[in-house]
Amino acid sequence: MLPHETRNKRTGRPPRAKSAAHHTPSTPRLPPELCDMVIDHLFDDKPSLAMCSLVSHSWLRAARYHLFDSICVHCEKDANAFENFLGYLRSTPSIRAYIKDVCFDGFHEGDPEAEELEDTLESTYLSAVTALLPAVHSYTFINCQWGRSADEASACGLVPLRSLHINSFVAASEDAKNKLRILRHFSHIEHLHLANMWLGHFGVDEHDGDGASCDDRPGAPAETRVRKMSLSMANICLNFLEYLRVQPFMKSLQSFRVVDLFHADYLEEHQDLTFVGELLRDRLSSTLEELNLELPRLAEGESAEIYSQLNLSSCQALRNVILRMPVRREIDAVDAETAREQADGTGTSAEPSGIPVPAPSKPGLFTLEEWRAPLAILSQLPTNTKSVSLNVELEGTNDAIYTHLREKVDWQQLDSILAKLPALESFSLRRVKEQLPYTAPWTKAQHDLIIRKLPSLRERQVLGCRWNSGVQ
User: Which regions span the lipid bilayer (predicted)?
Assistant: First the structure.
């Protein structure tokens, strides 16, 4: 008798069939509600969610909205990443409807100096992607270098888009400078984000507009409409600003957000601010309804009167104005390490003449002139403005902030300016946190100070001193 037969005879149990060892119960052991809770909890942790989804086919199907809603194609690490992604979309049609956001990072087109024009992102690849992914809400292009195209306006599409981000735009040659024609793949863009835009030293004229060649073709669709635009002035060049001015979509812009003013130190006499003022006076004067400005800290000796060139009084359609005063964390003249060394006596003074080195600026508190900047802007508002929001980043003790508000803000002038806006329905003075969407609470003393200092708005019941959870 074999050993296993002896064992089975002794225990009185029949031997198990091999197939029974791999049997899977027909009904799931975990309730669907628990599975859904796990999937929802891991929605932003895609590696963990992918591992859980590999457990069963039902989990993979349930998690498909989270796994495939956002796709990033890193082209710098793999030269064929874009072609592989395109092939994957064609071979896997079942996931196309779930992809909502697509990011292309580091896509570099062919040699701009080559004699033969190759297929490019704008002329060929993007046309294929938009055809395969009709449900995409947002596209992002980061650090993409544009090349030339055999047919710059070959694909005038009618795909609406919620958001388009273009970051680190580089035109490789004179022939490639007009790459905002990528917008022509979309009939409507809700929000266009532009940052780090550089055109080099190529000339721009009034015929360089996006729709110059496409509108002349028989049957060409109407030009792309953009409702909102966010523009970062960091690493901006004047050629691109001039190029942006002549784009047809600027005529339909209703909301304009500008950040990083005065960031490009190679621009003289605040040319970026001058450009914004010219846009507001000319291209946007009849359509702009909302303006969102981040006010940079003023250098020593600068006057708030530089904001008079914004020409807001010409924007008769303007209804909402949002101003943000960010906190300053850097040191004006020297970096933090050098300041510490010089304070400790371990470093070599950069000024042999004995001129004292500037101390680090106190974070979160503004100078009297910096508080005059929003007043200079608000004094230009047209009389039909309905909403004004002033968001300030104040840091320090509660007593220090109270003293700062009482001594640095010209409340009488602010109240006088707002009283001249008969259509004003809402005024908000928020204390905000850096890079965070929520507001920090005012103390009761700070709140009462603001209410007391703006009597005309209190009487009109439009004062909105907002906080998260009431006063402290």
Answer: none
Rounding to the nearest 10 degrees, give the CA dihedral for residues 391, 397, 399, 402.
-10
Q: Cite the DSSP H helix spans in 25-181.
A: 32-41, 46-53, 57-62, 64-68, 81-91, 126-132
b/e burial code for range 199-229 (CB count within 10 A of at least 16 → b): beebebeeebbbbbebeeeeeeeebbbbbbb
Taking alpha carbons only, the member of 108, 100, 64, 50 closest to residue 82 is 108
User: 447 lies in which domain range?
Assistant: 289-346+356-472
Task: Please name which of 417, 450, 453, 407 lies closest in space to residue 431, comparing C-alpha atoms.
Answer: 450
Mean pLDDT over 162-166 rounds to 92
Domain assignment present for residue 91? The answer is no
Low-confidence winner among 47-56, 139-148, 324-333 (lowest mean pLDDT):
324-333
What percent of the chain is helix, strand and coil (3-state, nearest 5)? 35, 20, 45
Instruction: Tell me the three state secondary structure of residue 193.
Output: strand
Both tokens of 448, joined, read: 């009462």
Angle at 314 between CA 273 and CA 192, to 5 degrees: 55
Q: How many domains does the chain have?
A: 1
Q: For residue range 378-434, what is the model confidence (pLDDT) as tens digits? A: 999 999 999 999 998 888 888 888 899 999 999 999 999 999 999 999 898 888 876
DSSP code string of 245-281: HT-GGGGG--EEEEE-TT--TTSGGGHHHHHHHHHHH
CA atoms of 20 and 16, how far apart (whole Å): 7
Taking residue 352's Cβ as centre, other Cβ atoms within 10 Å add up to 7
Structural domain includes residue 243: no
Contacts for 136 with CB less than 8 Å, ≥ 6 apart: 99, 100, 101, 102, 130, 161
CB-based contacts of 103: which residues, under 8 Å, 6+ apart?
Answer: 70, 71, 72, 73, 139, 140, 141, 142
The structure tokens listed for 75 are: 């082209």
Q: Which helix (H) or strand (E) holds 282?
A: none
| Ramachandran class of 12: left when φ > 0, alpha when ψ lies in -120 to 50, beta otherwise | left
Whole-structure pTM value: 0.75
Q: Distance between CA 244 and CA 218 in Å, rounded?
A: 26
